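Predict structure. Chain length: 289.
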Amino acid sequence: MKVAFIGLGIMGSRMAGHLIENNVDLTVYNRTTEAAGPLREKGAKVADTATEAVQDADIVFSMLSTPEVVTDVFFGEGKVLQSMKKEALWVDSTTVNPSFSLQAKEKAEKAGIRFLDAPVSGSKPQAEAAVLLFLAGTDEAGGKEVEPYFQMMGKKTFYMGKPGQGAAFKMIINMMLAQSVVVFSEAVLLGEKLGISRDFLLQTLPELVVTPPYMKGKVDAFKTGDYELQFPLEWMLKDLHLAGLSAYESGQPLYLANLTKEIFAEAKKAGMGREDLAAVFKYLSERGA
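Prediction complete.
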């Protein structure tokens, strides 16, 4: 079985690395060639173009940044879909809105390609440790072919039943995550203004049942001000935008998520877009100083 992996950013490079470690016959491609160097050293074949990478692949994984990049790489004359062999499987792990995934499925089928939306829950540490959660837009039977590869890169697969539902679940998860970071940040900053030390708040609040477990992994960043990139703030802003778009398409208001999106937009405007999403704490701290 030949596999191709398109997109070697923070997540994709680590996911592809686990495939190599498991002796998968892997060809990789990234628009910036430097990212492919470490994978070449591990044994991956590195293609010069995306179309070259997928020509002989039975399964093609993509982990790209935005729906627009997926469109640019996969759709159109001379693009990836037209270069894949018939009945190959395209597994898109890019975080996109569900309606985009359904459009991608339709375009893939017209090209004779099978499609599966399978975004992941987790960031850099989970990708490095191969404990990502895959959110697959199919049932268990539909995922049988690709499940062994999910197991190489993650610890669990949620089979959501039908196309687009993997993307939909990812929207919900990231929407909640972004709001959790903002709520935690505001709680700490208010606590400080009320005379409680930041050290006490950062030590105590993460242990309470009202705090999502995820926040424990951000405490050191809040303490030190070092927002080492795990998941870029600008990509969380993108995900909040896609959640808003999905809500508009569904006729469902998102009061708090849209407010959160504006906070992240302001933080990006303040130059924090390429810092970790936890840098929204720094932005809110500076605003309240």
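Summary: Strands lie at 2-6, 25-29, 45-46, 59-62, 89-92, 114-117, 120-121, 132-136, 154-159.
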